[in-house]
Amino acid sequence: MNGGSPFDSRLDTTLLEGLEFACRPDCGLCCYATPAVDRAERAELLQIAPESTFIADARGRAYIPARPQGGACQFLAQSRCSVHAARPFPCAVFPVIVHAGTRFQASAVLSCPGVSIPGAVDPGGVRALGPPRGLETELGRAEARCRSEEGRRALAAARRDGQRVERILEREGLWVPTLQVRASLRGRIPLPDSSDFPVEDPPELEEGEEVLPLFFDDRRGPVAIAGHAGGWQLVELQEAGGIRAWRGVWPPPTRMPRLDAGAERALREYLAYWLERDALFGFVHAAMLEEPSGEDVLIRITRELRWIGATTVARARVRASGRGASAPVLAEPDIARGIRASDADLLDRAGWTVQL
Question: What are the residue ranges spanned by the domains of the chain?
Fold first, then answer.
């Protein structure tokens, strides 16, 4: 397991280099969530809004509940946060997401329409593109959390879990070190092909609007993708909960769509970004224990990248159809829309890395 001192509180921000961020006041997409709150944050919220309600998980960790039927956070009003000055850590650092694994690593949630989509990752894994712009406040809050006792505990726990997973996979002859996997795949990022299609359908509306993948539409606001007997349907959500409008149903691709040169480059760069995320390895290692296949880490990471690519392309195709685009070839802007409709959903999975 590649890692330094268990007390190293530094936050690796390499994957934020060169990015630009400007929050869109008309968006509110990130508020369709149930962010965790610690004891101090909860007390501050109750001072500002005494009517606040919270929910707790089995471990006793508190969360701000979203409104029913896929609605936004109780504090969102007309796409504005009514407790902005006291917003909890997950909200305060968004679109930055921090995972504790062998280190603290920050990356950007690329579903956020206010953050730029990163370009090429250097084959050596170093993105010497300069500091990010517009994320100073978010990074300050993230770095403070990494230095906190809560952050230290999260890092220590993640490292213990990672070491346990490594021992199990080594014993089974399936372990390949993360640095070796990255060195093998940088410069030859695997792209999906028709054998990776059709991809898994998103949940259906009957399973609840709150579990659907979301994206922000410039004209319609938050839009969800739901499985449907006739294909995938796009539905506009409303802040108070429930569906504002049905956009229609379009069939997802059953084979790999054609991509022009710009689209292929954009997809390859997105998958290269995923390869550098420590969370990718946390997801895959956990899946290897839950769903043994006899394949080693390198093969499973390769498969995972192809699956991420296929999911992104499928959502890009459906979004293009929903916009009335009939061109058989997807272009770079289509892949960008597929990334916006996929990244947060793909990051919302369990692994041995810990999301702060």
Answer: 11-154
